[in-house]
Amino acid sequence: MARVKMQTARSTLVEPVAVAEDLLRQLEGGETPKLVTLFASRSRDQLALNRAVRERLPRGTRLVGATTAGELDNRGIHSGSVVMGALSGDFEVGLGLGTGLSVDAVNAGAMAMQRAAQELGVRQADIDARRYVGLVIDDGFRYKKEELLLGLLEKNQALMLVGGGAADSESDPQCQSAEIHVDGEVTTDSVLVALFKTSAPWAALRSHWYQPLGERLTITRVDDSATRALEIDGKPAAQRYADMLGVSVEDLEFGKPRGFAAHPTALKVGREYFIRAPWKVLPDGSILFANLLDEGTELELMKAGDLAGMTRAFFQEELPRRVHNPRATLLFHCSGRMWYAQATGAADAIADSLRHAPTAAGMNVHFEVYSGFHINTTLTVLAFGEN
Known about the structure:
Elements: E1 4-11, H1 16-26, E2 35-41, H2 46-56, E3 62-68, E4 71-73, E5 76-78, E6 82-89, E7 91-99, H3 105-120, E8 132-139, H4 145-152, E9 161-166, E10 180-182, E11 185-187, E12 190-198, E13 202-207, E14 210-222, E15 228-232, E16 235-236, H5 237-245, E17 265-269, E18 272-275, E19 278-281, E20 287-289, E21 298-304, H6 307-322, E22 328-334, H7 335-343, H8 347-353, E23 360-365, E24 368-370, E25 373-375, E26 379-384
Parallel strand pairs: 2-3, 8-9, 22-23
Antiparallel strand pairs: 1-6, 2-6, 3-10, 4-5, 4-23, 7-12, 8-12, 9-24, 10-11, 13-26, 14-15, 14-21, 15-16, 15-20, 17-18, 17-21, 19-20, 22-26, 24-25
Helix pairs in contact: 1-2, 3-4, 6-8
């Protein structure tokens, strides 16, 4: 029999030592954890919190974590707190940190994966995708996911990756920043990989609340940064998108109830739809995307469904089908998804849906990673079980 399980704890105390002691007190009586995750509000003193927690953990327990735009557990979605997950059982984990993300993201990703694989004593090319899975947390405000993913998967494209960007509840883009915890280090402008090896059941999953409309659009012209769609279907991008939805250009911006959040685009890969939502309309009539764009890319137009109901069904139906006897879930919940839930009055319902998840710890993130793709408006999940 092989299993991975998790205990969780949450603290709203302020002083770092008191927080650490409060969290670890809640874990008393459980198995000694092999890995602890620490999801902490950006308002916290991360270095002091890290030091207080690290000093109180067993020497052999690894520690990873990140700043958040909200902390998740089975009781809901919280603000200003610290959520801890303590994973134990039949697994090994190697940690890798890649720095200099904003300077050379491909190299940062490659560096992180190389170090994680070295800790497990495995060549990257020899990693068996059936027994290994990578958890990725990056500094989300560097907007380098697609480049860092190239580095992470450079020597083994079959490896499954899942995670999201360290975040901040600050809404002003000029003031946003993020930090990542790796054992006793707190860092920024970097990417973390936690590479798991296990014979226990596991799955990397993703859940969104969209369905295809049956309409497609083609990105026909992009700017030099490859982040702005200048033309869609040969027409000015924002006006073409608005015309397809039957709304005004002013209605499009993400977070408004009839715009990009309600009707994003998706990249169809096989039978799956990976959400790649537009973000905002710029003064020149172009559309800024969170993802890199290629001219000629065909995207599916999507429509929103029941956000909370589909999330609840994901936890109750899809996840147990994919993971036998699920015992632990690490959750990476899109901050944009949270904004939309708040704008449409669904925030309480989406928070309540988390009580249906197997034991859970996670955070609201700044964009997500799933299956080697940079996506958004999605809940990505790493789940472990027991056989």
